Please model this.
Amino acid sequence: MSQNSKGSFGSNFGFLMAAVGSAIGLGNIWGFPYKMGANGGFAFLLIYIILAIFIGYPLMLGEISLGRKTGKAAIEAYREADSRFTINGVFETIVPFLLLCFYCVLGGVVIKYVIANLGDLIGASWGVNGVAADAFFGGFITHPSASIVFTLIFIALTSLVVLGGVSGGIEKFCKVGMPALFIMLIVVVIKCCTLPGAEKGLAFMFKPDFSVFAGTGWFKVFAVAGSQMFFSLSLASGCLIAYGSYLDKKENLEKNAILIPVFDTIAALLAGMAVIPAVFAEGIEPSAGPGLLFVSLQTVFESMGKVGPIFGLIFYILVFVAAFSSSIGMMEGGISAVMDARIKKGKGANRPRVTLIITITSILGALLVAADQLGSNTGMWKPFGLGSWLDVFDLGAEGILMPLGGLLMAIVLGWTRRGFIDDEVSLASPYRTKGFVNVCYRYIAPVFMIFILFVQLSSFFFSGTAWYQALMG
Model:
């Protein structure tokens, strides 16, 4: 009843594209390439893939299965699985609220760059027009009024798609957007990998360098790869449980839980092959964060001459699709949980009303991040001694609640309700990976999630201490 009143996916392909869309985001475009190159290239990739197999796949399968078995979003799904862990559903529902507060601001910046490159292409006055890439980026984010306008546009577009429902909005966009994203990525990869000097960037990414494992170096590589894998797959963010609750019972859960990480990793590698060779071709040192995406890459496109705006436009459109599909998943994770609460009280799901509530909440948080100018507003107060409001929301979501959510899910499925999802996974096909998954839930995932939680908290609060720097090499 609740599943039908909230909506459902019309096809497995639609579900798969929506789930892949929630996983592929801004972190894939700039985070993965830089982290891979800075942490041993192939050595980092190898650790990443191992962790995706032993941690990513079991947790992905668990979240989708919980959603489909219960027909509920995170809060009610955990209440049904083990009422003692309902709090974990609350954690997973809070996560998308926190993520949207800064993600929509960055999404607004992406829209600005799409428009700017279109302006350069047609010779309009609202293009970059020869302004230095760092000055253009700084000039935009340090004017909160402009940043707020584009943030509101991004939030409004996200709300509009979610308002259309599961099949009429989310599925419809992702079935077109995700294939288009991969096509655009391949086009940009071909161009950037054929630039003079691009081979240095490819070597930076893919040349095996196991010397990074020396001393405590393995700890750093393992920590960075683990963090990237966990957050890249949108685990413990409420989205996958919600999407799972909309999935038809005849679909193969094991296959979907494998394909989502595979597509996500392919997208991350393609993004790396688009970004890193390009910045190396221009002699630019790659750096993590928005600077790589909005300064270094814009510099590269400007250096291409007349074709630069064409590839710049294609690139930032694909970045928009990646950011947009992730924001849709985040918003739906929260909306689905609120609709569950309404249904439980005997009220209708009322998607329009719930969407409006979530939209207003997202706007309030995003205004703080935009006004803070991504941390550039030194006169603005920030709590917990952190450098920006973006860091505040990021700490709450990615630093604490997401790894904690993964830990508690492993405890539920591996210990307190062992075997809870077995019958659900077995509905469409034999549960071939059951033994492997159970071992991961009971022994591997808990240790890993404690480790990630420790690293995340340490990176926010103790990154300047001698012991942390020694530990991280």
In short: The CA atoms of residues 188 and 311 lie 7 Å apart. The chain has a mean pLDDT of 91.
